[in-house]
Design a protein that fits this description.
Helix content: 25-40%
Strand content: 15-25%
Shape: globular
Oligomer: single chain
Strand order of the largest sheet: 2-1-10-9-11-12-13-14-15
CATH superfamily of one domain: ANL, C-terminal domain
Structural class: alpha/beta
Radius of gyration: 23 Å
Distance between the termini: 60 Å
Length: 541
């Protein structure tokens, strides 16, 4: 085994046993990484070695930095981490803040100093932060001063967290003053842990996924290089936060790996995204729900700079894809990824897109569907989606590792159909299947039918307890502006679904709502709707 650079061995000591790792594959020439590798150093210095140090790397509300200026900030912060905060390789450093240039520089500095980045969502509150801090044994945190209160509350019950340094109010910035603009990257091994990614939208005890320095580059050298194919003049923007590995790749790693520019939005509202596009952003990353909202805001806006659109985070409905293409002429690149895999592993772009299908296995990965005994099924079959490639699930000290990795495959919890051409068609999350009177009904299929109705802005479909049928299909529907809810519209929607898909799948109950519960990454939290229905059923009985 290659010698680790980690002095603090916590991360290495809490990796799952090797026999519980997924099978890893490095079939592409770009994936032949050296045994020693510091991902941050590769990302920071790549553009500079190509003579692009004066090119704009990041545009944000707080800073506009060239690659040279970003490197100087990263190196000063790395000196602060080591010289002032006593960080040694392997220590975990928590980062808390919205997407801005300082957050970007801090994340890179943590990796360059050989530490392990623990990025957290801005909306997390003290009880959630406590769980993350305790699980990762975090000793130091760097926090946007506007989000300090909840972290201070969490620290009171976290003896491991010795020091919190704020940025944006001058505290970190003062420590950076006078620090050298160069810093020798720690000589980490390619298999040293670089980041802990906590799964989004979790309930109960969080799971921390462990990703190596080589994994950070591998997500670029697969999905980005072969599917998105960034050009040097592209300007990236989007809504996913850095703490979500979709956002980390899309808005930090991808643009830096390919020497592009990224526009960071602290508050990625539809208006802010459209402003960024009008100002020059060419490449958009966001969730399906945001694409639907953006279409309702197009009036009077100029989106002519936009060239590429990427969707991930949850299933992209065919109706959303078609509406977007009709209005923009741009084919959305759908991508399936997972925090456990670090980024996208199934996708398609350009003429390879089949509307409604997620896509094929991204070069570097292979995928199949498995039966209930976890054996591969032939094309045309529906089963559990399984994938393997250069990245894979490694939970930090968690028995759930055994359930995610089976026979060397990462089993994602999605039900998919694979066609004869190797395209994967989403059926449902395993827990989104509704069993009603003996029929298996995929909630997302009903959602797609509803979304084809001109009155529907968003919807979520769940199984509601029913004494006679076991469950009934219930739809929570957000209507487009100006559309009035009522019994007549509910009946119209039910009849519409019956005409679109098998009639037994129609929603027997429809509730009109102003908004759907979502995670900070834009995923609809169907489990909250399910829990509410269970509580209603219990009260009624």
């Amino acid at each position: 085994m290659v010698q680790s650079a980690h002095v603090d061995t916590f991360a290495r000591d809490n990796l799952p046993p090797r026999d519980q790792w997924p099978e890893l594959r490095f079939d592409l020439p770009e994936l032949q990484y050296p045994e020693r590798l510091n991902a941050a150093d590769v990302l920071i210095e790549g553009a500079r070695r190509a003579g692009l140090g004066s090119k704009t790397a990041v545009i944000a509300a707080d800073y506009r930095w060239t690659y040279d200026a970003l490197a100087a900030a990263v190196n000063r912060i790395a000196h602060v981490l080591v010289d002032d905060l006593g960080i040694v390789p392997g220590n975990r450093v928590l980062i808390r803040g919205p997407n801005n240039a300082m957050y970007m520089a801090i994340w890179l500095a943590v990796l360059k100093a050989g530490a392990v980045a623990v990025a957290t969502m801005p909306l997390l509150r003290a009880p959630e932060l406590r769980k993350y801090i305790a699980k990762a044994r975090v000793g130091v945190a760097l926090c946007d001063h506007r989000l300090r209160d909840e972290l201070d509350k969490a620290q009171a019950d976290c003896p491991d967290l010795k020091r919190i340094v704020s940025y944006g109010n001058g505290e970190l910035e003062r420590l950076m003053e006078g620090k050298p603009e160069d810093f020798a990257a720690v000589d980490t091994a390619a298999e040293d842990v670089a980041l802990l990614g906590f799964t989004s939208g979790t309930t109960g005890q969080p799971k921390a996924t462990m990703h190596f320095h080589r994994d950070v580059l591998a997500m670029s050298d697969t999905a980005a290089r072969y599917v998105i194919k960034p050009e040097p003049d592209e300007v990236f923007t989007g809504s996913p936060p850095f703490a979500f590995t979709f956002g980390l790749g899309a808005l930090l790693v991808f643009p830096m790996r390919f020497h592009c520019t990224t526009v960071l939005l602290e508050q990625p509202s539809p208006e802010a995204i459209l402003d960024a596009i009008e100002a020059g952003a060419t490449t958009l990353f966001t969730a399906p729900t945001m694409y639907r909202v953006l279409m309702s805001k197009f009036a009077g806006r100029d989106i002519s700079n936009l060239r590429k659109c990427v969707s991930a985070g949850e299933h992209l409905p065919k109706a959303t894809w078609e509406d977007w293409y009709r209005q923009t002429g741009i084919r959305i690149i759908d991508g399936l990824g997972a925090t456990e895999m670090i980024h996208i592993f199934i996708s398609a772009a350009g003429d390879d897109i089949r509307p409604g299908a997620t896509g094929k296995a991204v070069p570097g990965y292979e995928a199949c569907v498995l039966d209930e005994n976890y054996q591969p099924l032939p094309p045309g079959s529906t089963g559990y989606l399984a994938v393997r490639g250069p990245t894979g699930c490694r939970y930090l000290a968690d028995e759930r590792q055994k359930h995610y990795v089976v026979n060397g495959w990462n089993v994602t919890g999605d039900t998919y159909r694979m066609d004869e051409d190797g395209y994967f068609w989403f059926v449902a999350r395993a827990d989104d299947m509704i069993i009603s009177s003996g029929y298996n009904i995929a909630g997302p299929e009903v959602e797609e039918a509803l979304l084809r109705h001109s009155a529907v802005q968003e919807c979520a479909v769940v199984g509601a307890p029913d004494p006679e049928r076991g469950q009934v299909v219930k739809a929570f529907v957000v209507l487009k502006p100006g559309v009035n809810p009522g019994e007549a519209l509910a009946k119209e929607l039910q009849d519409f679904v019956k005409a679109e898909i098998a009639p037994y799948k129609y929603p027997r109950a429809i509730e009109f709502v102003d908004a759907l519960p979502k995670t900070p990454t834009g995923k609809i939290q169907r489990f909250k709707l399910k829990e509410r229905e269970k509580e209603h059923a219990a009260t009624a009985s």
